[in-house]
Design brief:
Blueprint (H helix, E strand, L loop, with lengths): L5 H14 L16 E6 L2 E2 L4 E7 L5 E5 L2 E3 L3 E2 L3 E5 L7 E9 L5 E7 L1 E2 L7 H8 L4 E3 L3 E4 L5 E3 L3 E3 L5 E4 L5 E5 L4 E10 L2 E6 L2 H6 L5 E12 L1 E4 L8 E7 L2 E4 L2 E4 L4 E5 L2 E9 L4 E5 L2 E12 L2 E5 L2 E4 L3 E6 L12 E5 L1 E6 L9 E4 L7 E2 L9 E6 L21 E2 L3
């Protein structure tokens, strides 16, 4: 028998393998790009500003949110999305979020308001041009006003995330009050001779209702000579005064005044004298209030001090919920002190400081009587109680017994 043709067998094997469609190993697919926002331009602008986001992994379509509210994009591609800031967008820093239909989300920050990019001396004119209710983003670095007074009329100034120092010495900053709206300072360091309040001019009030103005200070570091109404001037009606995460260092007097309420949260105040001038309500929460010669805190309806320190380094401390003395019978105020320390210290041998408090209408504050000659100071530490006392017990007579005093 004739042996098989080896060459023919090999060729037949190649033909059969090819017919069966045997391929090599599969080629790996390209990895998808991660969702990431690399740039936002511009980073600030008012309603009507067109904003461009660039990055990777955007997909072909999706949803944009500004401050949590959906915004219809103008254009969308794998690496770029454009949108227009809508009317009614919440002011100041907001989250700008992309939610591609392919899944995931990416977030960047955007400031809804007016960026100031001019010379420091041009800031006042810029603020007058943007008008009431505007939020303004200041540039980073030093913004010296060279002794000019800066007048804030229903506008909010925001420091740059990189840090902004606003210097006005020997001038200061004046907040105009009396025709509604609100004024604010946020995320900046202010070095000025004064930060004061002044009633709107008569010609302005003639065209604008005389209504209270709210003043909100957030993450403000202020160093100056005075804080509060300017000497000899009418501060005008201030509805609310709010200080949060702020620090005031004042060489003379700090006077916190409002009609409705004064609120201090996580705030440090240090001055020669600190006065809270009889609003309806005062809340001091997680804060430190230190006056060298005097700390005088008064509210007509309710006063609460929680997790805070009130201290006079060489003088007296008054904490007074005055109540409604015009009512018949007079209505006591509500005084709450919890987990806080009230100290009246003396720097002179044998001298006394006094820590006084009251919530009885028209009654002078009671006084603690402890004196420590060896430490040359008087200290009143108020320990909290869980339950409020009745109106008949509303005047505290012993510091260690005071927790809360309130009408039933």
């Amino acid at each position: 028998m004739k042996p098989p043709n080896r060459a023919l067998a090999s060729a037949l094997c190649v033909v059969l393998l090819t017919a069966c469609g045997t391929d090599g190993p599969p080629t790996p697919s390209e990895p998808e790009e991660a969702l990431h926002i690399s740039s936002v331009a511009p980073v600030a602008g008012p309603a009507g500003t067109q904003v461009t986001l660039q990055g990777t992994g955007f997909g072909e379509s999706g949803l944009v949110r500004l401050g949590g509210a959906p915004v219809e994009p103008d254009a969308w591609s794998q690496g770029e999305v454009t949108l227009t800031v809508p009317d009614g967008a919440p002011p100041a820093w907001q989250s700008l979020t992309l939610e591609p239909d392919s899944g995931g989300e990416a977030t960047a920050g955007f400031f809804v308001g007016h960026p100031f990019e001019g010379e420091p001396a041009e800031l006042q004119a810029f603020l007058s041009g943007v008008g009431p209710g505007a939020h303004v983003l200041l540039p980073g670095g030093d913004l010296s006003q060279n002794g000019l007074e800066l007048v804030l009329d229903r506008v909010h100034l925001h420091g740059h995330p990189g840090g902004t120092r606003l210097g006005t010495r020997p001038g200061g900053v004046t907040v105009v009050t009396g025709h509604g709206g609100s004024t604010g300072l946020s995320d900046l360091a202010l070095d000025a001779s004064y930060l004061g309040f002044r009633s709107a001019e008569a010609e302005l009030l003639a065209s604008t209702p005389d209504s209270p103005t709210a003043v909100v200070l957030t993450a403000l570091s202020y160093t100056g000579s005075t804080f509060g109404p300017q000497a000899g001037s009418d501060p005008g009606p201030i509805d609310r005064l709010v200080l949060e995460d702020s620090r005031l260092v004042v060489t003379a007097t700090t006077r916190l005044t409002a009609i409705a309420d004064v609120t201090l949260r996580r705030t440090e105040v240090a001055a020669h004298e600190v006065q809270v001038a009889d609003p309806l309500a005062v809340l001091i929460d997680g804060s430190s209030v230190v006056g060298h010669a005097l700390v005088d805190v008064r509210a007509s309806e309710g006063l609460a001090v929680t997790g805070s320190t009130l201290r006079a380094d060489d003088g007296n401390v008054f904490v007074w919920a005055t109540g409604d003395r015009s009512a018949a019978p007079p209505a006591p105020g509500r005084l709450v002190v919890q987990a806080s320390v009230v100290e009246a210290l003396s720097q002179q041998p044998g001298a006394r400081g006094a820590a006084r408090w009251s919530s009885t209408p028209g009654a002078p504050p009671s006084s603690s009587a402890a004196t420590s000659a060896s430490r040359q100071r008087e200290t009143s530490t108020w320990s909290p109680r869980e339950t409020a006392t009745s109106p008949s017990q509303a005047t505290a007579s012993r510091p260690e017994s005071v927790g809360t005093t309130a009408p039933s």
